[in-house]
Structures are given as C-alpha cells and as structure tokens.
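Mods, move this if it's the wrong board.
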Amino acid sequence: MTNLSHETLEKLAAVSTATLTTALFRRGFRNIYIQGPQRMNPGPNMVGPAYTLRYIPAREDLDGLDSFADRENPQRKGVEECPEGAVFVIDSRQDATAASAGCILVTRLQERGCKGIVTDGGFRDTPEISALEMPAYHSRPSAPTNLTKHHAVAINDPIACGGVSVFPGDILVGDNEGVVCIPLHLVAEVAEEAEEMTVFEDYVLEMVQKGASIFGLYPPTDPETMDRFKLWRQENNR
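Not the wrong board. Structure tokens:
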C-alpha cells in the first residue's frame, strides 16, 4: 500500500472535507465526495489509502451461511488481508437493505491497524461499531446479514462507492461531515493547498465574527485583505 509522508498525513489530518473538495474542484474534479455515508463515531480525521471490496447482487445458490467457511470468501479474505494503515472501502451498490459488515469484522479491521471503514450501504451491530475507536462511515443501520442481498466478488479492484470511482491506493480523508477520495498522484499538492486554505479561512472566520463584511474579504478582492492576513498570521504564529 501507498506510504504517505508524515508531513502529508499531518496536513490531511487537520483539514476539512469541504476544503479538500474546493482544492480538487480547482483541478477540475467535481465528483470526489462520497455521497451517502455518514460517520458513526465522531472524532479526528480518518486518512489512509483505499483497500476495496466489491459486492454484486446476491444469488441464492451461492450465498448461504456455509459460504462464510470458505477462506476465499472475498469479504472474509479482504478483512484478513487489508494492510495496516489502509481504509477498507466497500461498494454495496448504495443498497443498505442488508449489512455490508458487522461489529466482529469491523473490530478485526481495527485490531489489524486499519484507519477506517466506509460503505455506501449499511452496517449491522451499529451500537457496538459506534463505540469503536476506528472511524466508520455508512448510510444507515441494516440488521440483515449481507448474504440476503450482497455477493462479495472482488477485493482491491476499482469500485464505485457513493457514486465515486475509488481506485486501490487512492487516499481517503474523512471528517465528521463525510469522506473525500483524492487521486494518489494529487495528494501531496492538494494537502498543501488545503492547509493554506484552512489558515486563510480561519482568519476570515475570525474577522466575520468580529463584524467584518465578506465583500473584499472572501474572496480577498480588497488589496489590503492579504496584507492584514499576513500580519494576523505572524501574530498568531500560523
């Protein structure tokens, strides 16, 4: 799996998905925010490379409970092979009528050192998953076993999740608002720009809280805005 520099990881851990979507929009990317999944256990940002699982619709002759005993079952195998530091991303075809996974599998991923799990479907055992430390994102609770609707067919292939193309190794960043997928080749420059945007927006917010108008400030069309920002940045060690 991809090794991100410590500097890039720190930057991504400190910026919002809203800021990242703007930085990516500047580069022509409009469809990088995974639609649907919400965080179950609010906390610090989730950052890591994607490791994927893809479901297709279940078929009755293939998806009985005995299929879990097969060590080649992609759901089970994926959980046991997901690398430390990765984010486990599941393509459930935006179908939350059956679970994508439950607490035991999610706990196993946490114990293996994964950085998070994301599905465009739903999880079962949601009270228990919500109590875990590892970030988890889903669309809504879903008690039925995955076998009633989902057939696990592939691991670490390109998938769709929440209408977004996710390729293995793409960098996923999740905050308490949602999840963004960043193409790997752009991650360092996007992280740097997002960090700078965050500092400026912190300044803007402080000025607005003090009664300033957004005109000339946001965006900074007034020539004096950037001069004031530079002074503020020095005074606040930003």
